[in-house]
């Protein structure tokens, strides 16, 4: 238990409070995991770098995370823990990395009791990132009455690689998904300990952006995570194909164990002992040169089926869900685009060959008059826009509420660089950390427009975490998703609208036909690099182009 009235006494007893008169006492919490001492910034108590599992090093590398026993004494929680091993990057903002990285950070008002909990899962393509990044500072949400938790989880090959030898070590005969196991363990730690920090373990919202949102979808689909959270937020999530553990059925896409074998061979590891003997940094660097791309694995256990199938059958976690995407998702992710065609004629010819009876529908949405913008919009909509609406549609059909948004806010530094509403650009508005963006981030101006938008988004998100309905004082009501396709549009200010500009019905039909035909992944292989579209399938909703209402594009 914890009490603000006792913190000063605890600090004195532990020799932690020796500052000048009027200095704030050190917050000390006696949780089931052990006693921790944090720091106070204004009216917010912060606990950094709290471990939630044993370090996955040595023989524990590529294993299920093991809970820690209660530690002895008082753990100093004033410094962030190490980030998990990841490739070197000029965009990284964390100072140190190690495999001893399974830690979390907590923000809450100094007098908070029984508060809603927001658990944030960072993005970074399951390759990079950390919960300690300044842009994820939870202070603003804490002032809204929330307890905020940010977590680290294993990344890259250490977090997601499968291998037959690893599968053979387990009773279930599976491997991969170690990062997902970490996230589940972190949520279990929250359930067991968060009450000591003033949070309500029966009112937990999981949230994330990009790969963090993908992780939210994995958690919603995983039976192992059931009951550990009560609401979910997916910002720029992508509902793509999950690779199979073994005996893969997708054309030109090997199963996860085959990929693991190939990676080990390319980096010169003869067996599992060699892989575990490699230094983490050397392993990460070597694997980065193989082209390995981490994703969850369909293992029949943590991920029992394709995530889209789980959602369509209504077997996902039946919790309120907020999901959305940004106008400029691909403006900062141009590596996802195919090579540009020679001109309009070539563009139209390629689309005709690839989309067949739906080519005219495609070209009406993504015309040849501005090929670059059409290519950006195609990949954005197929990857992020369709996903966001698909999620809230299926969640609504499952009897839980869904809330859809579209972030289309521009400001001079981003717009002038060609990055309007770029991927992740909503995060500092959501967290109220516009002054804490990394050095490479287009500078957000200090204007009343930016402040109003951020205030509104903080309030909507915090309200959703409290009770499952996003509300903001003085701003439009946010209607739950229904057949009219309502959504909240965040431009200079929030605006309630209907029928988001995401080409939903076209991409729904494309994904449905690919799934019905079998063997074709559904992700960013769209537009000019799409495989030829399979013929109409009876189970697909739209059928032919005559059924498309292009006014709802």
Plain-language structure description:
With 553 residues, this protein is of the alpha/beta class. It has a domain at 1-113 and 123-201 and 254-304: Alpha/Beta hydrolase fold, catalytic domain (Rossmann fold, 3-Layer(aba) Sandwich), CATH 3.40.50.1820. β13 and β14 (494-498) form a beta hairpin. The protein is built from 17 helices and 14 strands. The strands form 2 sheets. The chain has an 11-stranded mixed beta sheet with strand order 3-4-6-8-7-9-10-11-12-13-14, sandwiched between helices. A 3-stranded mixed beta sheet has the order 1-2-5.
User: Could you say which structural class the secondary elements and strand pairing correspond to?
Assistant: alpha/beta
Text of the CATH class of the domain at 1-113 and 123-201 and 254-304: Alpha Beta
For the record, give the distance between the C-alpha atoms at the N and C termini, rounded to a whole number. Answer: 53 Å
The shape is: globular
Q: Rounded to an integer, what's the Rg over CA atoms? A: 24 Å
CATH architecture of the domain at 1-113 and 123-201 and 254-304: 3-Layer(aba) Sandwich
> Order of strands side by side in the largest beta sheet?
3-4-6-8-7-9-10-11-12-13-14
Output the CATH topology of the domain at 1-113 and 123-201 and 254-304: Rossmann fold
Q: Keywords, please?
A:
alpha/beta, disordered N terminus, 553 residues, Rossmann fold, eleven-stranded mixed sheet
Short account of what is shown:
The chain has 17 helices and 14 strands. The chain has 553 residues and is of the alpha/beta class.
């Amino acid at each position: 238990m914890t009490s603000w009235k006792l913190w000063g006494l605890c600090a004195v007893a532990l020799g932690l409070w020796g500052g000048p008169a009027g200095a704030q006492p050190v917050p000390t919490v006696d949780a089931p995991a052990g006693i921790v001492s944090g720091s106070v910034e204004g009216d917010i108590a912060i606990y950094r770098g709290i471990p939630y599992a044993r370090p996955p090093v040595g023989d524990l590398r590529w294993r299920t995370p093991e809970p820690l026993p209660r530690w002895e004494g008082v753990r100093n929680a004033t410094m962030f823990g190490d980030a998990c091993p990841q490739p070197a990057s000029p965009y990284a903002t964390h100072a140190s990395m190690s495999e001893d990285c399974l830690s979390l950070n907590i923000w809450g008002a100094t007098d908070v009791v029984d508060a809603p909990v927001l658990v944030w899962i960072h993005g970074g393509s399951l390759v990079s990132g950390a919960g300690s990044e300044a842009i994820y500072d939870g202070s603003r949400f804490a002032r809204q009455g929330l307890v905020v938790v940010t977590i680290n989880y294993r990344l890259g090959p250490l977090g997601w690689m499968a291998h037959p030898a690893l599968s053979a070590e387990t009773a279930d005969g599976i491997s991969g998904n170690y990062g997902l196991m970490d996230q589940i363990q972190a949520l279990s730690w929250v359930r067991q300990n968060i009450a000591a920090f003033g949070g309500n373990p029966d009112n937990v919202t999981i949230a994330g952006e990009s790969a963090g949102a993908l992780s939210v979808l994995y958690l919603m689909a995983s039976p192992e995570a059931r009951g550990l959270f009560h609401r979910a937020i997916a910002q720029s999530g992508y509902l793509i194909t999950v690779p199979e553990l073994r005996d893969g059925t997708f054309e030109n896409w090997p199963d996860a164990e085959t990929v693991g074998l190939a990676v080990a061979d390319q980096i010169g590891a003869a067996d599992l002992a060699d892989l575990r003997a490699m230094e983490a940094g050397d392993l990460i660097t070597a694997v980065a040169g193989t082209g390995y791309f981490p994703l969850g694995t369909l293992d029949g256990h943590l991920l029992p089926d394709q995530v889209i199938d789980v959602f369509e059958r209504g077997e996902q976690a039946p919790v309120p869900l907020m999901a959305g995407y940004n106008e400029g998702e691909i403006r900062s992710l141009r590596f996802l685009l195919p090579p540009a065609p020679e001109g309009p004629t070539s563009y139209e010819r390629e689309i005709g060959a690839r989309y067949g009876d739906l080519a005219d529908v495609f070209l009406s949405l993504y015309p040849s008059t501005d090929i670059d913008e059409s290519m950006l919009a195609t990949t954005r909509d197929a990857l992020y826009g369709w996903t966001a609406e698909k999620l809230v549609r299926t969640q609504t059909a499952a009897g839980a509420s869904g809330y859809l948004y579209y972030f289309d806010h521009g400001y001079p530094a981003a717009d002038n660089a060609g990055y309007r509403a770029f991927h992740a650009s909503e995060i500092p508005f959501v967290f109220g950390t516009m002054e804490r963006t990394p050095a490479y981030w287009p500078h957000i101006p200090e204007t009343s427009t930016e402040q109003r938008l951020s205030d509104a988004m903080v309030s909507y998100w915090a309200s959703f975490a409290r009770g499952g309905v996003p509300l903001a004082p003085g701003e439009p009501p946010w209607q739950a998703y229904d057949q009219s396709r309502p959504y909240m549009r965040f431009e200079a200010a929030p605006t309630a609208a209907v029928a988001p500009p995401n080409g939903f019905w076209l991409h729904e039909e494309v994904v449905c036909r690919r799934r019905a035909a079998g063997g074709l992944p559904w992700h960013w292989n769209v537009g000019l690099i799409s495989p030829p579209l399979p013929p109409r399938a009876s189970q697909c909703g739209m059928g032919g182009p005559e059924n498309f209402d292009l006014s709802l594009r």
